Amino acid sequence: MDVVIIMDVVTLGETMVLFVPTETGPLKYIYQFNKHIGGAESNVAIGLSKLGLKAGWISKLGKDGFGDYIESFVRGEGVDVSQVKRDENHPTGVFFKERVEIGESVVYYYRKGSAASFMDESDLDENYIAQAKYLHLTGITPGLSESCCRTVYKAIEIAKKHDLKIVFDPNIRFKVWDDKEKMKETILDIISKSDILLPGLSEAKILLGSSDEKEILNTFLDIGPEIVVMKVGENGAFLGTKEETTHIPGFKVKRIIDPIGAGDAFAAGFLAGLIKGYTLQEAVKLANAAGAFALTVKGDVEGLPTWEDLLSFFGNEKGITR
Amino acid sequence: MDVVIIMDVVTLGETMVLFVPTETGPLKYIYQFNKHIGGAESNVAIGLSKLGLKAGWISKLGKDGFGDYIESFVRGEGVDVSQVKRDENHPTGVFFKERVEIGESVVYYYRKGSAASFMDESDLDENYIAQAKYLHLTGITPGLSESCCRTVYKAIEIAKKHDLKIVFDPNIRFKVWDDKEKMKETILDIISKSDILLPGLSEAKILLGSSDEKEILNTFLDIGPEIVVMKVGENGAFLGTKEETTHIPGFKVKRIIDPIGAGDAFAAGFLAGLIKGYTLQEAVKLANAAGAFALTVKGDVEGLPTWEDLLSFFGNEKGITR
Amino acid sequence: MDVVIIMDVVTLGETMVLFVPTETGPLKYIYQFNKHIGGAESNVAIGLSKLGLKAGWISKLGKDGFGDYIESFVRGEGVDVSQVKRDENHPTGVFFKERVEIGESVVYYYRKGSAASFMDESDLDENYIAQAKYLHLTGITPGLSESCCRTVYKAIEIAKKHDLKIVFDPNIRFKVWDDKEKMKETILDIISKSDILLPGLSEAKILLGSSDEKEILNTFLDIGPEIVVMKVGENGAFLGTKEETTHIPGFKVKRIIDPIGAGDAFAAGFLAGLIKGYTLQEAVKLANAAGAFALTVKGDVEGLPTWEDLLSFFGNEKGITR
Amino acid sequence: MDVVIIMDVVTLGETMVLFVPTETGPLKYIYQFNKHIGGAESNVAIGLSKLGLKAGWISKLGKDGFGDYIESFVRGEGVDVSQVKRDENHPTGVFFKERVEIGESVVYYYRKGSAASFMDESDLDENYIAQAKYLHLTGITPGLSESCCRTVYKAIEIAKKHDLKIVFDPNIRFKVWDDKEKMKETILDIISKSDILLPGLSEAKILLGSSDEKEILNTFLDIGPEIVVMKVGENGAFLGTKEETTHIPGFKVKRIIDPIGAGDAFAAGFLAGLIKGYTLQEAVKLANAAGAFALTVKGDVEGLPTWEDLLSFFGNEKGITR
Amino acid sequence: MDVVIIMDVVTLGETMVLFVPTETGPLKYIYQFNKHIGGAESNVAIGLSKLGLKAGWISKLGKDGFGDYIESFVRGEGVDVSQVKRDENHPTGVFFKERVEIGESVVYYYRKGSAASFMDESDLDENYIAQAKYLHLTGITPGLSESCCRTVYKAIEIAKKHDLKIVFDPNIRFKVWDDKEKMKETILDIISKSDILLPGLSEAKILLGSSDEKEILNTFLDIGPEIVVMKVGENGAFLGTKEETTHIPGFKVKRIIDPIGAGDAFAAGFLAGLIKGYTLQEAVKLANAAGAFALTVKGDVEGLPTWEDLLSFFGNEKGITR
Amino acid sequence: MDVVIIMDVVTLGETMVLFVPTETGPLKYIYQFNKHIGGAESNVAIGLSKLGLKAGWISKLGKDGFGDYIESFVRGEGVDVSQVKRDENHPTGVFFKERVEIGESVVYYYRKGSAASFMDESDLDENYIAQAKYLHLTGITPGLSESCCRTVYKAIEIAKKHDLKIVFDPNIRFKVWDDKEKMKETILDIISKSDILLPGLSEAKILLGSSDEKEILNTFLDIGPEIVVMKVGENGAFLGTKEETTHIPGFKVKRIIDPIGAGDAFAAGFLAGLIKGYTLQEAVKLANAAGAFALTVKGDVEGLPTWEDLLSFFGNEKGITR
Q: Which domains does chain A have, with CATH numbers?
């Protein structure tokens, strides 16, 4: 196919096979696991595609059955996977969720030496990125390896050259970083190069040491981004721009099945809102709704809403108008 | 995307959600079913895509969760689904397999009034078909409804106009035809318009009343096609052309898990062979191998081999050379 | 068997195989489904049988494995199935539940052209109906087909001739009616012929356009029935007769597992109360309790309480005396 | 119901809940089990009912969920369960199958002190037995308890008084007998009172010490029965009467899924043949076929064929004519 | 191995295979069950081992696959099983949980005549018990059989001779006692011989007829034990000694998955606290926490916390200091 | 515990969590996986323990739920795990089996950087090894890492010092070795230091380049070992000593469920035979039988026979006498 694509959003990162226990309780005693997929960036790309936008995902997978699965799944959801490379020599990463009713749910990664951790600058096609409107990045990728970190910086460079907006979600994962100080430093540096920042409150605390929402927003705005949307769980989000700081309340869900992936749904909802021409506040409202949907399903991507889902959700909840 | 696609094969037909019992035995007593997909034409398209070719699938699905599933699954396998329409008013068809160890496995269709049965000529994009090399059709589609029958004839007309080769698999399904005489008549008529015919032996008997392989091949060749490849189960296939009639032996499988879908794998293997430039006899050998793979897995499409699978299979079996 | 049966209640309607996903979430992503049965009228018949009464169910099933399953299941629960016919030419209907945590759970029917939709007046045995005390009907059956609608009217005629009380549950299902106006008209007409009416509040709104409980009860009483019991979810029910209008509070359940089938449990509880000689108010209390039981189990019939279940329930809750 | 029943066959014995491992291998490591039912006599009753005959089953079950399950299941299959009593004080028996690929599959009983072991003469209704044509008994019931043994003898007495034919299947189960000598003695004594005897070859060896088929048949015929049909596994059966001794070959099955229950299917097929007016040899042929069906399914009763199944089986196999 | 073991706690009692339904609802309709283990005393032993202490379990199991499973499982958890005997002639007991959302969850025992019920005094090794610090007993064991009752008394005698502290949990199970009066009498008698008593509030009511916590504690203290810790569900526990009576509040759990086994976790937590040198009040706090963990998992032992779990729990909850 | 242990066999190596697909077919399409354990050395240790011997396993596991599982499982099987260390910083390895009906089943390792790969000489306790009779090693461990390779050599040194017999199974796994030449060299070097060698025929071909059984045996005997037992699949094994070379035929299995783990069962059977005092030829016969058992079960260790299993197997097969 000789194709002229116009992507709304291009994103870059690792996706792994996710094994979800069929029961809650310590991993030690679980007998059955179901195969799903997980990866912050492909979650966002899938979320955007389900909301009707064009998203492309740049990544590397092992040349193995798990890589086949992920590639087919993501393509199936309508995301462009033409930039996904396959590596004969390194495996597709996998991870396991432990679902407990007491304490925090934990994930166990098997991604050291994975195909994705070998991504480097040569995996980026400048022309591919150039034709998009937004570049979406998370703080996970630079922690995967030296070459992944360089790849992120190269992508930023290309984006800036071609006037893409850079959207950054810190997505702090202590487990992928060997050096916590380097983590903080790198993430703050990428924030300084971003246009839109989507941190969670606890991440902001780690990065800035402050718990005051307004202070956090202002500090981030000073560092670089022109839009900061900070997620505060079920309470929704705070929106900060040079002009104003607003709290936009979230939507309560009867029963939270799985909190993981809600931040990615939020990012997809917000970007979809922006690209479809909604106001910033409306976009955050859409993001809150998308996040609520994601809380209700076990996997990372299965709960991501379609645009029809959101329309029917707001058909009841009112108040979103173009 | 403004795209100039060059499809190797375009196919047209209904795909349904297939529910496979987790145990063998009468449907009456089965408690658990797993969701898969099934549809002769999409099976072939997926088979071709896994073998490295470009295939497009024209169809109609309900605007429902099952339609979402099928569309994503087929797209995920690399098949072009740009010509798959979604119908708000009619559901995606479903069917159930009964897997028994004594007697024949039976399928139960719920496809009356399905979205696909409402396909008509207006669902065909002449430009889309025109750019392909082969049009693949089966004898199922004309039996689905009057409008489906007209659609098949319209597709043949377009194919002939644009010099596509027409590949036809009779795929006789008594359950989809109300009038058995009309079935025979229609299928024979389409055969007369086809370039390549891929019948099974039992189908040939139904259509021609003969059990003599050579006689069958010659009769079919007289009716119209220039190539007839008749499948004779584990014994492989008979290849007939104006020039010669050959028997090409099949490959034995240790344990047949599910015979359904093997014919579609055969078609994919044969077409892949032709398009990749193999001789007719080599193409049949590839078809036999692809059919053997399909016998070893429960669903219709999960057993379809990749090109790597075939290469490694013939690495052991020898004898296939370009 | 040469049998003289005295049925407490005879009911008439379609039952289908119900496939319930093993997980919550969009149908698109569900892999496993479990087989159950569902059908408002057989739910009520089974509910009555579990409460110790004699119930007969008139229906038509396909001559297939799913029909075998339903016939055996319903007979197994103690319901008389001597009036269930089997159809060689049309299949047993099936349907799928989508269980979601956000938005409404939806069902997907595959019942167009089902065996049951071909029921007609000739399937009614006047002698069989004549020996019963109550005829139970729902608003689903007249919507299935023209012949089903005639069958309902014929059953009403027979019931009136032999002095059976007619119990009607509107059970509005938009999906089975092609013409919504005809639906309203038909249901109101059947109400005018009924002795006991068991609507839900939202159904009453659709039929009468009012949300005022007292006004609704009085309007219905004016149309024909001498007893109206309107269900208002967890809040219980309103009982209306010529003499009085009372609210009878319901029973809270810790966790609602599946709301579908609760109305049928309610009908069974109410009829069981009446037939066992309880007062109207006590019968509604029993109905509320039966409805609460049904909320706690996934399938339609598995949660229907036995009489021992209700006795032990009221052993704790007090206040029901003969 | 005031009923005049004419049963073809009445049988008497214990039925238990059967737990079948989802995987093969030592019970120690199996995690999942599926619930089925098992009991030689109810297997036969269900087999007869599926073949179109009227069968009644006399038994006792606990007043518990497992008893509810068995009662509903057996009733659902069309067997008359009006003589099944429920015991408040003793549980329904359960047992577990161990399915192994090496060595013999073993069953583990939990039936000591079960409700059924408390059956006694007072549980027999003379009028009920009197109206039947055949009384079916196995050698399991007299081993369950003293009172069960007395019940079997009382049933024989009633059968003789009312001219029922007594059909006896030794069904030797060492695990239910405390005293092996008493077992042999009792079973031989019941054989002497039987009209039709249906032993297996290995059972004959245990009882008579001989392995010579003709000698075995003649010895049994001398002891009492007028018809002896001895099962010899896949090789079919030997038929012995005063007049002749014949070997009637069995039907091979591609893959034996579970041998347990095949003898009961055989008994049902044979009795159905006799009652439907087939010759003895035809009846054995039907019995062989029924046994073959039962081998192909995991549970005890799910593989029992319907009459339609047998007709279609002999449609291929030929040779059975009324 | 010639071993000098110093056990912290030795316990004595029956453990059975526990079958847990995969779904909630009446046992009648459940198809799948998962295999776990259950037994109050081995639960406590496992709980202690997970908390870092040395525990030994004296018991008898059948020489069967279920016995193999239990022995391996308990040994695997680090409990000393050198005193577990295997019985060729009697089976390992089994039981089934019914998990319902309305009413009480019920268990169904199949333990009559089990291997464990044949334990007697000769199964006790005085030297083994002598080397331990605590003897843990429950009120279940003396109800299993006469010989089990004698075994408990013999164990008490040995414990007193060697200065072990006797810890007693009444664990009233009506189903194991034929004579309810004897049950009360025996349990009160064992209480009079115990040093530490761990009753539940409802048990105390049954034994003493009082509902007043202080009165209960004082009455028990008068009977014999020097420490009484009475569990009051989610409200925690009351601690009574000669010196004082204190209420120590419990920990709320978001969702109680399965209440069974929480009392055993409590016992393990309390004993671990004592043995590790915590104060009585701290030990009760640890016991409350251990009980909370056990509520969140389906099986009996899978939810028992490790010492690391408790440390991290109190890392958040504060207030426990050595 | 202050313990004087006398181990029959001590072994050393990595064990991982093994995920087995519930269905056959490409990993890409599998949804459910069950958790098992796998590791050649712990397989042998478990096999020995089930055969009644004392075995100790030296290893390192992550301080995570999967490590907890493996440690408990192996201890549960009666293997001494006192020398298993837990690593806070590196995870327990995992691997996945792909079960296919066509081509070879493949395993996918996630063991790079696992806890076990960080074992080094300091993890060996000389006193622990010194008290055993045999040291069992495989060719997997030296390939895991440099430090693992040194650990193996150190263990050999200790064994030689304390007169343990060294049993070596080459267990060639190309996937764990970066350098194939080094693999060959290392394995041949360890063979030269071994007393008993247990290669497979295909491994012998890789190492020696020969396919002639006698030649292979003699070459190996020349290199060092005094006993060589070479496995030739279902054909059993060749036994070679200085004195003689014998072929000892294997036992056919009806259906091979999973070939993986059969070599470990063979090793356990052979060592058990030797230690129990059987002749070499009898020990190989026991090894063949143990291997046959292992073929019939899906996991690696669940099919390992107990001594009772072997006795009852040879009860039928005759010919093994002490």
A: 12-313 (3.40.1190.20)
